[in-house]
Design brief:
The complex is a heterodimer of chains A (about 350) and B (about 280). By secondary structure, chain A is mainly alpha-helical. Chain A has a single domain (about 60-340), classed as ABC transporter involved in vitamin B12 uptake, BtuC. Chain A has 14 helices and 4 strands. In chain A, strands 1-4 form a two-stranded antiparallel sheet. A two-stranded antiparallel sheet of chain A has the order 2-3. In chain A, strand 2 (about 190) and strand 3 (about 195-200) form a beta hairpin. In chain A, helix 3 packs across helix 12 (about 280-290). The two termini of chain A are about 10 Å apart. Chain B is of the alpha/beta class. Chain B has one domain (about 1-270): P-loop containing nucleotide triphosphate hydrolases (Rossmann fold, 3-Layer(aba) Sandwich). In chain B, about 35% of the residues lie in helices and about 25% in strands. Chain B contains 10 helices and 12 strands. Chain B has helices at about 1-10, 55-60, 85-90, 110-115, 130-145, 160-175, 190-205, 215-225, 245-255, 255-270; strands spanning about 15-25, 30-40, 45-50, 70-75, 80, 95, 120, 125-130, 180, 210-215, 225-230, 235-240. In chain B, strand 11 and strand 12 form a beta hairpin. Chain B starts with a helix and ends in a 6-residue tail after the last helix. Classes of the chains: A mainly alpha (about 350), B alpha/beta (about 280). At the A-B interface, helix 1, helix 9 and helix 10 of A face helix 3, strand 8, helix 5 and helix 6 of B. Chain B: This is Sugar ABC transporter ATP-binding protein. Chain B: Pfam families: ABC_tran. Chain B: Keywords: ATP-binding, Nucleotide-binding. Chain B: GO terms for molecular function: ATP binding; ATP hydrolysis activity.
Chain lengths: ~350, ~280
Amino acid sequence: MTAPRRAVLGPFRPAPQPPAPGHRLLPEALARPSLGALVGLVAVVAFFGVESPGLLSTGGLASVLDIASLLGIGSVAVAVLLVAGQFDLSIGVISVASSLVTALLVSEAGWGIWPALAVSLTAALLMGAVNGLLVVSTGLPSFLVTLATFLVLQGTSLAVASAVAGTSRVGGLGAAAGWESARRVFGATLQVGDGRFRVALLWWVLVTALAGFLLWRTRFGNAVFASGGAPQAARELGVPVARTTVLLFLGTAAAGWLIGTLGLVRLRGVQVDPVLGSEIQYLVVAVIGGCLLTGGYGSAVGAALGSLLYAVASQGIVLAGWDPRWFQVFLGVLLLLALLANSIVRRRLLAVPRS
Amino acid sequence: MSTALGSAAVPAVAPLLELRGVTARFGSVAALSRVSLTLRAGEVTCVLGENGSGKSTLVALLSGLQRHDEGELLLDGQAVRFRTPGQARAAGIATVWQDLAVAPVMSVWRNFFLGAEPTRGVWPFRQLDLDAARDTTVREMARIGVTGIDPDAPASALRAGERHSLAIARALHFGARALVVDEPTAPLTVAQHALVLESLVAARGRGLAVVFVTHNPQYAHLVGDHYVLMAHGQVASNLTRDDVDVEDLTRLLAGGDDLRRLTETLRQLHPDLPR
């Protein structure tokens, strides 16, 4: 109760509050989940800028942004889901399975690319709905529910791919009807100097902006924060927790489809790969971006900065000529640091207030 | 059907809220069993009883969080069935929950409007009306004496008393017709108790039907017009201010055998007491 009472509240809010020292600083810092990722990104860019200068060239920038954009699309979807207190382990396999559906419909059934994409998107959304409805109706941890759907989808993808196409790689999509227009939307590139920038970058920016808008500027976003941060309060105030959760699982499924489609168009095919990997990357990036695993706290920008941090480090290690296997070590240390920092944030946020 | 029934059964003005033989079950356990209650505008009804006597279920029922399995809930003499707390709030019934229902990580104004956020613009560009939300929050908090708060600060940065005030200010803002206050479990200072009681009296003055769930017979006697004693999910007795003094209420709240014995005594004194 130290700040002076504002006399008139104008139509536009003055951006910075008059700096009242002391206890105002902490809320300011806590209100920005992405702060840690920003600090980490600056540090990593500074370090690898010296260690591997090629990173700061146009080519280096293009490759960093290329890695970051596919990762970022998944991470931002996972981050928003984490804010609601849920996790989706099946997003990576949804991206593979949905692009497999697209590829099979084109190569085996002779469909045009756009109808095939529409069908695979519908299938992905169905998977998301199954995940969401299972989580909401059973109350089981979403980690386990989506682990189950992950296994089912992964097995099905491999079996179907080898049964229908005889191999785990389905390709030869370049001849499909509508291929050129699909390539413009999902696979266009722009050559600047020695760097080739891909349209996935625009998709990433778009998805991140949309997620940020939804989180901070809509009723839906309020419901997301409340569902994860204070589920009991959310129920008591009539926030549609179940509907919000299901919609978010649809969101991660759609993000999975988008990642799959971007990869499909780039490679003109799909490789069904039996590894559990990308889901964990998205989770790591979302946590580095400031999401609390307990829900209720996180941001879209944080996930974007986390993706950039990830991409700079992985490219930096390659360009510095180190053994790329060190990257995993780095990532593990980074995750640990992020978890420690987040647990401090959590303790501060949930501290019993002074009476 | 319910309209005709309601208007036929009620002579002059239908009570704002009425429960008729309401039963609510959790599985096979009846948390409320054939509860009948009348809540009139401009009256404070205190609900007293032990833990587990059904008070919280009653709050949840009136607030739309819990649905009843039997009986009727009548609003203005018409049977209603709230499916969510949002519907109850839309009908003008707002609640101060026992746990205050404040999300610690969210900002003060987001908490204030949680579940009923003001928006502007047309879908898909519809977005939160941030300025209106912030202004209203600051204004409504100031109305109950909390000034100088930053609406953008997280609720966890509030003092315990301010958090409590937030829950009350929110209920007063959204409760156009009825206010349900479940006494917070967190220990309150005398000043915070005073704030609760003041807001109850103010709400009664504005013509709201007020339900006050409490453990404290002193406070109940101070503000109550009616006293509903609950035991084992049933209304053990339904008293008015003329029936009891503070000592009676205190003894009644001691519960168990005391309660039953006193109920019997009161019944003998007042044969016309409603069941």
